[in-house]
Amino acid sequence: MAPDHSDDASAGVAARLKDVIFSYDRDAMLPSAAELAAEDTTADPDAREGPVLRGVDLSVPSGSFTVVMGASGGGKSTLLRTLNAIIPDFIDGSFDGDVSVLGQDATATRVSEMARGVGMVLQDYEAQLFGTSVEAEVAFGPENLAVPADEIGDRIDESLHLVGLGDLDRRREPAGLSGGQKQRLVFGGVTAMHPELLVLDEPTSDLDPKGTRDILEVVGELTRGDSSGEGWHGPDTIVMVTHKIEEALLADRAVLLRGGTVYREGDLREVFTDVSALRDSRVALPPLVDVFDRLGVPNERLPLVPSEAADLVADTDLTWTPPATRGDDPPGAPAGTGADLGEALFDLSDVVYEYETDQGPVRAVDGVDLTIREGEVVALVGHNGSGKTTLAKHLNGLHEPDAGTATFRGRALAERSMSEIGREVGYVFQNPDHQIFAATVEEEVAFGPENFGLEGEELDRRVRDALETVDLDGMEERDPFNLSKGQRQRVALAGILATDPDAIVFDEPTTGLDATQQDQFMELVGRLNREEGVTVAMVTHDMEKVARYAPRTVVLKNGRKEYDGSTRELFGDEAALERWDLRPPHVVETANLLADEDDLPALSDDELVAALGGEDAVGASAGVDAEAGTETGGDGR
Amino acid sequence: MSSASDLYVDRSSLLHAVDPRATLAFVLALFVPAYAFGNPLWVAVPLLVAFASLLYAGGLRNFWRLRFIVLALFVVGLIVWPSFTAAGGPTLLDLGFYSVTEREFLFALGRSMRIAAFIVGGLVFVTSTSNEEIVRGMRKLGFPYAFCFAVGTALRLFPTFLDAAGTVRQAQEARGFDVSASNPVERLRQFVPLLIPVFMTAFRNVQTQSMALEARGFDTRRERTFYGDESYDGTDWTVTLVSLGVVVGSVALAALGFGSV
Question: What is the span of the domain harbouring residue B32?
Answer without folding.
Answer: 1-129
